[in-house]
Design goal:
This protein is mainly β and about 60 residues long. The protein has one domain (about 1-58): Immunoglobulin-like (Sandwich). The chain contains no helices and five strands. It has strands spanning about 15-20, 25-30, 40, 45, 50-55. The strands form two sheets. Strands 1-2-5 form a three-stranded antiparallel sheet, with no helix packed on it. Strands 3-4 form a two-stranded antiparallel ribbon.
């Protein structure tokens, strides 16, 4: 992935994460594709929940 310059974000299995930037701010588009509660960087995702959150840990 590094050789091809593919950005990768570690997450629990079943969570899809897309980092995006808009101006000086960055965001995560998060999708929980499971029927279980999952956590990504202290953000709790309910089963099948999708959220857009600001990345404050840049």
């Amino acid at each position: 992935m590094k050789q091809q310059h593919i950005e990768h974000t570690e997450s629990e299995e079943g969570i899809e994460v897309y980092p995006r930037k808009l101006g000086e701010k960055s965001y995560y588009f998060l999708m929980n594709h499971t029927q279980e509660v999952k956590v990504f960087k202290d953000i709790v995702l309910q089963p099948y929940e999708s959220r857009v959150v600001e990345n404050r840990h840049q």
